[in-house]
Amino acid sequence: MGGLGEIMDAVVALSPADGVSRFAGAMEPEWIDAALSTTGSASCRRRKLPAQKVVWLVLGMAMYADRSIRDVVEHLDLVVPGVRSLAPSAIPQARYRLGAEPLEWLFYRTAGEWSTADGLGDWKGLSLHGVDGTCMRVQDSDANFDHFGKPGGRGGSNDAGYPQFRLAALMNLGTRILEAAAFGPFATSEQDLAEELWARVPDNSLTILDRGFVNYSTFAGLLESGENRHFMVRMRRNLKYTEIEELPDGSLLADLPRSRALGRTQPDLPPTIRGRIVAYEHPGGEPSRLFVTLLDHEVYSAEELVELYHERWEIELAFDELKTHMLQRKECLRSKKPEGVKQELWGALLLYNLVRREMLQVAQANDVAPKRISFWSSLLLMRTFWEVTAWRTRPGNVPRYLAEYESRLQVLVLPPRRSNRRYPRHVKIKMSNYKRNRGKRGVAAK
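The chain above was modelled as a monomer; its predicted structure follows.
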């Protein structure tokens, strides 16, 4: 796989008209062909907007969330040479003809290549991963409402202004590459969606979870479906356990018992799961406990585990980067049909990983952790180079701009985080006093 230098070498070699390919250096060209052929989306018919270019259209929609889809097509010069006009209906037709499957295939193909990096992400021989969930809004169309549904509120069911879907994701906490994702209607729980993710957790790993994922079946499946898999989870207050002994580091060796009901429905599950309970309390915070299946207290001390648990927040930051920075706080995604929503989301996740991969290259070059690289600055710099330099400059002048681009990469490195700062959650901006518009399907419209 080539790095940033190879990507920019490709920029110099390409003609000004073939602008979209300049961002393709990070993705092997045959991957797109394989995605189209594997998912049955390839076409022998010569079209004004071919399937290969539609893939980059979907990525461009995520890169330029503030532009219309037609502007993205024109800006990226996606139509075949010689075509002067493109009917407005041709763009959505091309999108839905492509479908979501090629973008999903490409996401997993690239995630498998990029999620690991030598010397980054391991903790005492274990790769670190996190799973969490979030929600996103979609257009308030009949099709989206029927498929995804709306959350309730103070006014009852369907009180929200927009339909929403629920998303669960698996992240490599070391490289901050998203490795897998699953999404569905809002009524689907994060635990149900995460069932699709556990099989993708690699061996010799530690997966860090929030207490919303406390589930005995999940724990057992995670441990038994691979080799040397471990997990660490924040315990609920009512989680029952059997104390075995107190260890020298202050942690407690304990067994989580299988419930009687679970024993009747899933008798193949182990009767107990052994682990350690680590109790801690930050200044000004509430007492908390962790359950971790790493049993050796000498190798994995309680103090180190408490510090490590907060790496789970990296996936929370990824959701913020995706929704706040990349999608620019848009009220909702643009697509009005569920199939379009799926395609748009896979494209956004793929673009997120593309940006993250370039950040990983910068981190390795500067010998710092990937979380020390600014996502927002990286995204802005890539957008600027993509739209200003790469498409509006003669190929012969690109090396000069490339030198300036590479020199600016140093500004992407952030100072070390002040992780000892802790603040209680509170509202900083008061909501508007104007009457809410809950949409045409809201309670107020009934």
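Strands lie at 122-123, 126-137, 164-172, 177-185, 205-209, 229-234, 242-246, 252-257, 272-280, 288-292.
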